[in-house]
Task: inverse folding
């Protein structure tokens, strides 16, 4: 049953890509740098930390706009985040960007062409646009396309949905200018890297990088911060609504923390019942993405644990991004 659906899904996406490739449907190019970040799979591969890294790299010298679909929002059309925005209006990742970076434009629109057109017509228009989760959105042709794949779940080992998690054939990785293998061990060996490069069949015109995730030593709430180590001997509840929480769970377990885990699906829309259940706990630690949904509703002590994106060969990666602009 699944293999039949997988063949049908593959056929539809292949026809769509072929139509774009031969120019029957035109991809729109714009006269400013646009960087797309995305993946081939359903679920998370580290897009949010990657976007945040690019914001930090580029916003020092350029006016940046992030354009996201705003997955899970209850609104429609083009919206620019402001002080009245919440996750229902713009989605959880855009809300995280807005709370974290005060010197950028955060916008949402499922129609990326319309979204870019709206941004470039602003009085204070951006100099660079970052497209969040846009690898399959071919109506806009980015100046640079970054494709992410997880170290322990490479797209080369996956199958088309619903047999696997691929949104389109793995052969379409050839559209990417840069491929980043995310969530690697910090001590990944050269032999492991060579093996992955062979498995992914990197093209001559493509560049591959490896990245890791580093958890902060600090926990944050609305007004303050605390050392994570202060919670070593305190039992707390971990709340996650992300695609794969195993990395965070294993990190806390490996470092000797004692906690209960309330796990929800990615982009979970927390119900009143969920909030009531969370409020029954004395101390709650969550992800930064979940925090933007919970902080205005949870009355118990609520903290989030940020993560940082660490790119191996950072100087080379930064230069490639800056030179492309």
Result:
């Amino acid at each position: 049953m699944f293999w039949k659906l997988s063949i049908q899904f593959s056929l539809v996406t292949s026809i769509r890509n072929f139509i774009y490739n031969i120019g029957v449907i035109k991809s729109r190019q714009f006269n400013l740098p646009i960087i797309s970040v995305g993946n081939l799979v359903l679920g998370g591969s580290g897009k949010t930390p990657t976007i945040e890294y690019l914001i930090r790299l580029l916003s020092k010298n350029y006016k940046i706009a992030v354009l996201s679909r705003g997955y899970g929002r209850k609104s429609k059309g083009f919206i620019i985040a402001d002080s009245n925005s919440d996750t229902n209006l713009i989605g959880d990742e855009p809300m995280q960007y807005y709370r974290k970076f005060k010197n950028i434009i955060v916008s949402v629109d499922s129609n990326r062409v319309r979204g870019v057109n709206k941004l470039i017509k602003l009085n204070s228009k951006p100099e660079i646009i970052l497209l969040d989760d846009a690898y399959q959105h071919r109506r806009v042709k980015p100046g640079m396309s970054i494709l992410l794949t997880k170290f322990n779940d490479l797209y080369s080992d996956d199958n088309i949905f619903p047999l696997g998690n691929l949104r389109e054939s793995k052969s379409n990785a050839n559209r990417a200018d840069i491929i980043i293998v995310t969530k690697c061990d910090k001590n990944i060996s050269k032999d492991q890297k060579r093996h992955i490069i062979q498995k992914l069949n990197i093209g001559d015109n493509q560049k591959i990088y490896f990245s890791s995730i580093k958890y902060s030593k600090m926990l944050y709430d609305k007004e303050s911060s605390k050392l994570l180590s202060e919670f070593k001997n305190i039992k707390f509840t971990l709340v996650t609504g992300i695609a794969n929480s195993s990395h965070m769970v294993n990190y806390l377990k490996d470092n000797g923390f004692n906690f209960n885990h309330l796990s929800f699906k990615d982009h979970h829309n927390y119900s009143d019942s969920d909030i009531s259940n969370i409020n029954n706990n004395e101390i709650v630690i969550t992800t930064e993405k979940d925090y933007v949904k919970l902080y205005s509703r949870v009355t118990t002590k609520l903290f989030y644990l940020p993560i940082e994106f660490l790119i191996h060969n950072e100087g080379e990666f930064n230069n490639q991004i800056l030179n492309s602009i």
Observations:
- The longest strand covers residues 207-215.
- The first helix runs from residue 2 to 21.
- The chain has a mean pLDDT of 93.
